[in-house]
Write a structure and sequence with these properties.
acetate--CoA ligase; AMP-bd_C; ATP binding; disordered N terminus; alpha/beta; about 700 residues; about 20% strand; AMP-binding_CS; GMP Synthetase, Chain A, domain 3; 8-stranded mixed sheet
Amino acid sequence: MSSAQLEQHHLDLQQLQQVFEPPAAIQTRAHVPSIEAYRDMYRLSVSDPNKFWRQIASEFYWHSKPDGAEEAPILDYNFDLSKGGIYVRWFKGWRTNICYNALDRHVLAGRGDRVAFYWEGNDPEDRTSITYAELLQQVCRFANVLKSNGVKKGDRVAIYMPMVLELVVAMLACARIGAVHSIVFGGFSAGSLADRIINAKCHILITCDGNWRGTKLLSLKSIADKAMSICIEEGNPVVTCLVVSHVKRPRFGSDEADGDSHSSKPGIRPAKDCPVEMLAGRDVWWHEAMAKEDISDDCQPEWLDAEDPLFMLYTSGSTGKPKGVLHTVGGYMVYSATTFKFSFDYHLEDIYWCTADIGWITGHSYVVYGPMANCATSVMFEGLPTWPDAGRCWDVVDKYKVTTFYTAPTAIRTLMKSSDAFVERSSRASLRIIASVGEPINPEAWLWYHRVVGRSQCSVVDTFWQTETGGHVITPLPGATPTKPGSACFPFFGVQPVLLNPETGDVIEGPGEGYLVFAGPWPGIMRTVFGDHPRYEQTYFSKFNGYYTTGDGAQRDKDGYLWVTGRIDDMINVSGHLLSTAQIESALVEHPKVAEAAVVGRHHDVKGESAYAFVTLKDGATFDDSLVRQLLVIVRERIGAFAAPDTIQEAPALPKTRSGKIMRRILREIAAKSENYGDVSTLADPGVIETLVALRTRQV
């Protein structure tokens, strides 16, 4: 490392300890304008949750409440298995409809002409928008389509679609009539889709002909056909499959003739090489179903109990069998809307963009339900952040004057690999808040995000939460919280984080590191695993009695800031030192040539475990002995000699799911020289495994 690079490295170390105060321009108009205001609200939320959440709930429409509801507690729960079964109930007996609160309420208030979504296609020239009033009409019509196909309250409906507006219509239509939607990310395989359809006992599937991801064409209907064949074999046939014609249609703003001129160009609609087979009696085109004369624009909402199911979303289980995480209507509605409002300090004049796919919980809570409950105007994005080039995100920010941008650390690190010129060619002057989701963000990526993307003028909101929590549980508030790079900071209202000693279960007071658990429920917490309540109790409540167990570790510093260190199975014990792999990764990516790093544990005869590091370099950098030595110096300086990896391997790419999460179990198998990779169907690029195995030679 040159003297200039060493000087920059030590400068960065100083900046990692810096506290960033909320920007004055954000603070002056913030819903929560100071850390003192946050603390006052937080104290009330945990000391008197009934009072706090009753006041919040008054901002929503409730069709009816039971007698005595204004005096009766709104929360009833048990987290202690020794006292009986686990349950959580918020607003029990209160009746509402989340679709009504997301649409009708705003239209009746005179906001029907507000844009609900600016839709940005894979092709930068392919875009449209839809207002709240237009969306309400579409939702009512499709709700009637579902009803005409026999769907009723409590039925499960599978949805397998890309990021198109019809996906929002479909999920809101389900919510309107009390059907439970089960959305499966459009990158899952036929087998994974079939597993979820069968487990949820769905007999209706909503899908799409296909979509572009950059220049890659995905034929979703063909995948869905294979899944439906599996469902027949397993005795759970899909009775009706509604199919959106998306990729075969001309792009918005062009006619059929113009579309034909683009049909041979990759990434641009219409695509002619996307065959669609329609099975008579089962498969129905969406547009034909919506155009039927007997389908009305009017559909009265089903008034549901707050504890009626809203949706299920499958997440990976430690056993490998996906879990159907079940969320209910009332608590989820209140919590997703409230976290959206405060975590992003949302105001009606803002333009909001969350890059997540709706197939994941972030898309449910922070593309659809949370924003729409606040009458937000959002950007919905079909494409990739790197296509046509690495400046796409910032071009979109300028195009729609986005004020709040929410993305994943993986995307941030990917964009960091490219030249800053891709960012700096855009203005980004509209941005106020830039946020991250999905995994702990390393401090180096946080600082790049703040300085380069946010021009050192934006609040950085690093959110921690899970599919199971329904919404943010640890997060800074833009106008209130002084932030530290890499820390999710403090709990959201009503959330009570506790650190426990992993061995004894004792509560860790003050600074320390341990198992992150939560005492007591917040409105958005999951209610059960669909069809398997014992698994719910075993997974989340049996390890530490009286607590919801996150499965993550965390540190708390002397100032009370929380640093989520990653999954407990991403902790390694080296010679008695419990190390977070995220900590080592953060040190490795401080090197100016390293774009991304992933660290796993490997068996060691003497130490118990040793650290095995995979590093992805920035464009133009060379992996050699000199670089390895420099990386070891940084780890030793940053953490200590005991944390230095025994092995550092070059990784041109890391094994990631299509949603961008690193599949660490595969890295552990590669490090162990095992070939037991398990299910690799969700890998974005299966060829990565062969590449990494071939490069498994560098020992240090």
